[in-house]
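Objective 1b of the project was to move from sequence-level analysis to a structural picture of ligand recognition. The entry below was assembled by the postdoctoral researcher (A.K.) and checked by the PI before modelling. It contains the amino acid sequence of the target and the SMILES of the bound compound, zinc ion.
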Amino acid sequence: MRAVTWHGRDDVRVDTVPDPTIQDPTDVIVEITSSGICGSDLHLIEVMAPFMTVGDVMGHEPMGVVREVGAGVTELKAGDRVVVPFNISCGTCWMCSQGLQSQCETTQNREQGMGASLFGYTKLYGQVPGGQAEYLRVPFGNTLPIKVPEGPADDRFVYLSDVLPTAWQAVQYAAPPPGGTVLVLGLGPIGDMAARIATHLGYRVIASDVVPERIARARARGIEVIASTEQEEVVGAIREKTDGRGADAVIDAVGMEAHGSPGAKLAQKASALVPDAIMEKVMTVAGIDRLAAFNTAIEAVRRGGTVSLSGVYGGATDPVPLMRMFDKQIELRMGQANVWRWVPDILPLLTDADPLGVDDFATHRVPLEQAPQAYESFRQKQDGAVKVLLQP
Ligand SMILES: NC(=O)c1ccc[n+]([C@@H]2O[C@H](COP(=O)([O-])OP(=O)(O)OC[C@H]3O[C@@H](n4cnc5c(N)ncnc54)[C@H](O)[C@@H]3O)[C@@H](O)[C@H]2O)c1
Ligand SMILES: [Zn+2]
Ligand SMILES: [Zn+2]
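Corresponding predicted holo structure:
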């Protein structure tokens, strides 16, 4: 089959790789019809490159049609339409039963000290082949895939794999008081969707980014935007809009590739020159200063408010402003989204009325073969690329 494979920093290609096969009785094979490119994929071709291997199949936002089921699969049959969550979770262990699917005890990567495996996502998370491909092997066929109805185009459901539950969790973890103010940092797919969800739930939403078409998309849906990512400007503007206090809650939908972290660019450069084994240590033990968005969040939240991190960070000794956080009495919540935890809340919103605007959320739908160009436009934020769906 054809699949998007990792070849190095800023280097993804479409290669022919072996077709996946049923390995366990509860596996299913899904023929992929749509597969998103995510901001998390950009980390893999930038700072997380040391944890990747040439030939790794990328992608963790797929949906498609079941083509084959293992002998132990009772809940799905060939022909069923499914979305595949990016967490590989069993659905039955203690963590899964608490709604903490990103910490699934069946797929936790204990030798790496990391949580549940993820599709298409580094050695740290199990190095499991991903879904930017013609076919995907999906384990836990009775509990993991989300069965969705026939009828609407893939756009209606595909974001259940990641964007919708991640943005939903971001807002739930932000937990502003009723009618409170939420500042969303970053208007990529995650921040954009979090802003839509928070608006839908009745909060006052203010967002920050500098990419013109991302700002325009948010404004078109009535979201207030601070067109800056400079900490002083963002903090000044948010205080002005909130009687000098700051936002009740801040959602960081940026992560470690933030503008304004000089350390991040240096680290990326270094990671291109320094042997992978050393860079792995730097990333997991030492850490590097790429906390621009996080620091803005800490400053922009009001005293006693909540910071909700969706953006992915790495590094153990990045200088977190603990004194400031303690003094401001900030509540901090974060993590990979627990996809299944939120699916029942989100499904009722995926109707013809389309309150979250999923039907035209994608800016680009391109054949799998064009993945390298699509990655490039998304990374460079060119050609109006906000959300790209690959269609094998
Ligand atoms: N927690 C999860 O489960 C989960 C799931 C999906 C994605 N993510 C993470 O969420 C983050 C966003 O993903 P995305 O797909 O929207 O990516 P993206 O890279 O398209 O979006 C990031 C946006 O942040 C803006 N930005 C950069 N620096 C900023 C700053 N200092 N202040 C405000 N805005 C700034 C950029 O201009 C860009 O528009 C990534 O870190 C990704 O890895 C987490
Ligand atoms: Zn994703
Ligand atoms: Zn589990």
